[in-house]
């Protein structure tokens, strides 16, 4: 008998097709997020749950008894929405989809960096509103990107890919903070310097880009004190997770001119975006588009499928995180 699996949201058609061929799959054709009650039922009725980054799997939805689920194959690299300790306690394997969204997420980080520095969102809004008066020497003056210093917080795959684009594409000087020592050819080739503390990175950077995981350990890593430690004309870019930044503190820093602007692809309680941010011109806001390309979304699905296939074949699971 094929394992029973449930997919919590619509996935790319090519991957849904393979899931249908290889498993006894229940799809979410309406693409409406599952409720906590539906999640609880899923743990009792399916061998595998295939959630994604917008689902919430706290301890409270894991079953107290009669759990049927043996694997949670997450569609996404970030897994801070899953209580992995609760999964372990219930003998449930958890996997993610690393590697395949590195380039596209780094591309979005650079898009935000350029857009906020060069006032692209603001300019487009002005033009579409029919308010552009024509070229003049003082119109919508932004900040030059080339040659500036980029500070990376979290020098993993996506941090490095972002740094690489900034250094080789825009001649940017790279400094970074990472909890463990990073010493590899890629980092050396960029002349990137690892600094001792986040504060050191903030003090030196014209742009700060966040690439650390979300969840309890990094919640509000960028708080009011750290925003104050940034240079006055600096910009904050976040393509990691919304909860890494204290959003109220960020709004305050932007309103007071403590920092020059922000480019954000992620928010603490998506899809809610604080009104304090949407009314500001010096902020570029995207609806969590980091991995949103055809190629990457299919590749993420294929990764989840590989994890699932290996698990049910009794083979080592490639992307196991718990
Ligand atoms: C992830 O996979 O964690 C990303 O945030 C999705 O774009």
Topology:
Elements: E1 4-7, H1 13-22, E2 24-26, H2 36-45, E3 48-50, E4 71-73, H3 84-89, E5 93-95, H4 102-117, H5 120-128, E6 149-153, H6 157-170, E7 173-177, H7 185-189, E8 193-194, H8 198-204, E9 207-210, H9 224-228, E10 235-238, H10 247-255, E11 261-264, H11 275-278, E12 283-285, H12 294-312
Helix pairs in contact: 1-12, 4-6
Notes on the structure:
With 322 residues, the protein is α/β, with parallel strands linked by helices. The protein folds into two domains: 4-100 and 294-312, NAD(P)-binding Rossmann-like Domain (Rossmann fold, 3-Layer(aba) Sandwich); 102-285, Rossmann fold (3-Layer(aba) Sandwich). It has twelve helices and twelve strands. Strands 8-7-6-9-10-11-12 form a seven-stranded parallel beta sheet, with helices on both faces. Helix 1 (13-22) links the parallel strand 1 (4-7) and strand 2. The longest helix has 19 residues, at 294-312. The model has no long low-confidence stretch (mean pLDDT 98). The structure holds (2R)-2,3-dihydroxypropanoic acid.
């Amino acid at each position: 008998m094929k394992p029973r699996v449930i997919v919590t949201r619509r996935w790319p058609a090519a991957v849904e097709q393979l899931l249908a061929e290889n498993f006894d799959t229940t799809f979410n054709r309406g693409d409406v997020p599952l409720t906590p009650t539906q999640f609880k039922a899923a743990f009792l009725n399916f061998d595998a749950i295939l959630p994604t980054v917008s689902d919430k799997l706290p301890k409270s939805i894991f079953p107290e008894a009669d759990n049927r689920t043996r694997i949670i194959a997450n569609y996404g690299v970030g897994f801070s929405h899953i209580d992995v300790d609760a999964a372990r306690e219930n003998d449930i394997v958890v996997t993610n989809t690393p590697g395949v969204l590195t380039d596209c997420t780094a591309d979005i980080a650079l898009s935000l960096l350029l857009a906020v520095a060069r006032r692209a969102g603001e300019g487009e809004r002005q033009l579409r509103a029919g308010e552009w008066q024509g070229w003049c020497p003082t119109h919508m003056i932004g900040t030059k990107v080339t040659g500036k210093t980029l500070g990376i917080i979290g020098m993993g795959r996506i941090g490095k890919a972002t740094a690489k684009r900034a250094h080789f594409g825009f001649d940017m000087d790279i400094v970074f903070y990472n909890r463990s020592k990073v010493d590899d050819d890629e980092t050396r080739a960029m002349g990137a310097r690892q600094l001792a503390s986040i504060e050191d990175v903030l003090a030196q950077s014209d742009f700060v880009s966040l690439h650390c995981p979300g969840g309890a350990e990094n919640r509000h890593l960028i708080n009011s004190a750290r925003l104050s430690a940034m240079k006055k004309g600096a910009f904050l870019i976040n393509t990691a997770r919304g909860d890494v930044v204290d959003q109220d503190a960020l709004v305050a820093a932007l309103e007071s001119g403590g920092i020059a602007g922000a480019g954000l692809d992620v928010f603490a309680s998506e899809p809610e975006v604080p009104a304090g941010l949407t009314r500001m011109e010096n902020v570029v806001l995207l609806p969590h588009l980091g991995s949103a390309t055809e190629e990457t979304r299919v590749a993420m699905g294929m990764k989840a499928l590989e994890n699932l296939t290996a698990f049910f074949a009794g083979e080592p699971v490639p992307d196991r995180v718990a």
